[in-house]
Fold each of these.
Amino acid sequence: MARPVQPDLDPSSDAPNDGSAPDQLAAPAGVAVAEQGISAGASGGAAIQLPAPPRKKWRIFYYLAIAWLALIVFAAVFADVLPLRDPNFQVVRDRLAAPGEKGYILGTDDLGRDLLSRLAYGARVSLIISITAVLIGSIFGGALGLTAGFFRGWYERIVMSFVDVLLAFPALVLLLALVAFVGQSLRTISLVIGFLAIPSYSRVARATTLAVSQREYVMAARALGAKSSRILFKELLPNVALPVVAFGLVALGLVIVAEGGLAFLGLSVEFPTATWGSLIAQGKRSIRSAPHLALIPSLVMLLTVLSLNYVGDTLRSRFDVRESAL
Amino acid sequence: MLLRKLLTLVPTVLLVSFLTYVLVDLLPGDAATLLAGNDPRQETIDAIREELNLNDPLPVRYVKWLGDVATGDFGRSFRTNQPVLEAIGERLPITLQIGLMALLFAIILSIPLGVISAYRANTAIDKTITTVSFGLLAIPNFVMALVLLYVFAVRFRIFPAVGWTRITEDLGENIKRSILPALSLSIGQLAVYTRLLRTDMIATLQEDFVSMAKAKGLPTWRILFTHALRPSSFSLLTIVGLQVGGLIGGAVIVEQFFALPGIGRMLFEAISQRDLVLVQGVVLFIGLTTVLANFAVDLVYSVLDPRIRRGSTRAA
């Protein structure tokens, strides 16, 4: 889950920008300024510190990441139509087939179920959980953060102190407690994860709102006598929404990982539904005889999270208010 | 100064304790009915309700509970009747050991990596380090645990796969069994720390005092590690403070994965057995630990940076 990070101090943000002295230790001035821009943006507004992906020359990775995500979405949406076997059908005599053996592209598990088909149906579960959770978190969290950053005062103080306290608990601990008591259906898991993500989005939205509120066009709108509601919805919302969406993309990956964690504790969606997490957890049982059962789903999860991080982070730096010049 | 900071801690601690209490209390499932177990007669349930003060209204129960907690009485586990604090005390050293080892791995590796990356900013070595740490961040700790388990316990049998030996029983065996769990926990942090240190260090390396040190002819390693490292470590420290909570969260999975009897596993078991008092105690303990860790980080700031100690945010 997201662990927002907002250092009280940002020693880099007001360091001198004129690194023009012929100092071998210092990076070239232009590079250094760019670096500071990234650091100021990341530590001020972003909720999690991701290393920024290398830019420009690496565009190819951006498109590869998008292609991979498209593939996963395609598999999840059309799992029923694609020529896949029933993910829960057990063929006892084909148990633990290696990848490529007996016509199973990725092999079978210890009950003789087709791994490829289970991965595709698992993608569906991961997608439903993560999209629902991100929607809940970004809508409620975004609204709280936006209003807190706009109205300030006691309202902001109350909202933010709740946010801080909720973030004081390790998210996984709360998640565990809630899911264990509330139940393990697809719906409750999505709702609980979404609920727990609200504070993180509030932080992102509030930080962005604070920055955007300083902009000339907001002041101009205010000077022209625009109503609060107009400033909120017409001036602030469109600008706050983009960073929140970019954070949401990264958060999709976090939710996928959270589901995996739950699966390892036996708390994900009930048996026999295939989820990526439960595939990895079940694969662990036969790691000695058939390591591919755990390693292939791990790789799929890893590539998906990596792609989401990469795309989300690229978009985030594009939308970051602080990075674009005033 | 210290006193004023301590006072700001009070409302946070109260809010944490209240949320813990309400959270666990409001969850569905009647504790008394669960406890009665095989004896579902109404009298038994009523007796248990009476004993646990479940008939009082929520605020009254909360205040009673808070009073008990403040005097060090976290209650007793429903299942084993062991005092909650005693149970925490038994399991905590294991989680602490794994967590500290993970932190140590992450810090020891990230400092040289971050410093090299900053010193050689935008060269091939920097790009490699940055890209690898970006990739490491996408690895969930259970996937890391799985890969480590496969490579080091199944393929090469260097470390045992699961289980635990107490440090008092056999030190060598204890270390052998703690390395894989600690590594699985440390990998994500390693990436975060490296990147943070790199960013802050690049900024520090442009400050005048670095040029000064350079002009004095100090060797590069001294400038990097004694002059520039300290002022570059604030963000790193903040994160380390925040990670204490993350470490405990991660411990739940990693302890379950490697079958270690730590506090994370205890919490998981308590939750699956609906042992409310134990869950409450452990969640409160974890919440308080996190709050205190962040507070400690705040204090360490002022030790590291004299400008904060003097009360001004930044010297001109």
Amino acid sequence: MVTQAAISLASLDKSFPPARSGWRALLQPFEKATVAALANVSLEVREGESVALLGANGAGKSTLLRVVATLLLPSSGHAKVAGFDTLTQSRDVRRQLGYHAGTDHGLYPRLTARQNLLFFGQLNGLSRSTAQERITALAEQFALGDFLNRQVRTLSSGTVQRVSLARALLHRPRVLLLDEPTRSIDVIAAAEFRHFLKTQILRPGATSILFASHTLPEVESLADRIAVIDQGRLLAYDSFSALKQRTSASTLEEVFLQLTGRAGDPSSEVSVA
Amino acid sequence: MISILSQMWLFFWRDLSIARTYRTVFVVEAVEALFGAATFYYIGRFVDSPGLQQALPQGGTYFAYSLIGFVFLDYLNAALETFDHSLQEARDSGTLEHLLVTQTSLPVFVAGSALYPFVATTLRIAVYLLWSAALFGFPLRSANWLSVGVILLASLLAFSGLGILSSSYLLVFKRGNPAKWFVLGITSIVGGTLFPISTLPDWLQVIARLNPVTYALDATRAALLSGASLATLWRPIATLLLFAAILLPLSLSAFAWAVRRTKTTGTLTHS
């Protein structure tokens, strides 16, 4: 029996109109898309697999995640989630997805954590009672019990991060999309977060994860396979050990620098640190 | 699968829950309504004269005339501004992206987010009218509430089309509300809100007669002050519904186009 890929990208291209300023910005929405953000990207994420998108700032990682999340339309090629096409079956695609961005939690600060979770859970098709049950269960897993009835604006950034991730998991999605998930939290909270993902999400094997990161320990710790992206192009897609073998490198940083042709360029180390 | 109606209710619940955290707002708005009603009453006392009263339809006072004009403008403002406001707020707060990856469509989000402001506007107007009736003798006894409700609903439907068109503009161009500027700008001069259109020059009266707000206001005044029935008011109601029948499908198509365009250009969630 052939198993369905959790995510499948085929010859995916995405281009944007050039950025304009002044009065020409008015015409920008109608200009031709000439700036390539993704070029001919093809990859598959298997059921239960965790895949990291590794690249410098502006490499196209977030664009790729946003195409999969149906927030952007591809210029050409196809993106499918659990067999559903993001262009023609976007609602079915969103039913399979949980989305969490480390940079922008997008919660209502004046609602409590519980109210936020109830609202988004029900928008994702859960009944109120099911949403309540799952909130209680997730609150236990995420150590959120004491914070559920507090307004989000009064919570620490680490706690808000956990609430946001709980929101992404509430409807038990098959695919979890994470955009720089630990970017705005401290080292301890980030380590806890990774531990949670490994033990609670990845180990049971029911959820696939596609995450963008330029935190190398995070990629090493969580990813079964790594997709190295540079200037919108997929340079390599394999396990960490296979990439090391291919590049004769000993660390992920060396792998990245060799694959992107930046070995010996000191400025590039900063962007992937 | 949950229905569109229950999703709309969720947006109402969200906005009500947020509004409840600003506990003083309800009190402040009730007091504001009192000051507003008092302002119109004293302006009315100042300008009421036999000559002006003859110019006023339904033979009412200027106080009643201007208060209804103001109340209607409040509704019009809500219809024109709410859709834009909810979209812009979601974009600025970062919630838009997270709403769009749920199973809710963007039209449901925009329409659902308009529910609470519409209900809040209705309540605010009710408080206005109650203050006016209790303290300043605003004549509420002869009102035909069924007619008032139908006219306000038809007006909301008609002008929501313009509000949704404005949201489409906002999605693509990021700032500005041309529908509000155009409709409120014209209405403040030739809508018959604060003075009768019979006081305008002939050519402006022609423009006033082309403005659906004029019909909606005339009908609201007739229903509130003279207790006009639905049968008497069928013409303005039909005009408003015709306006809605043209504008709503047009605005929804424009909105769908704007969403697609901004998902292509990558600016859907940009401020």
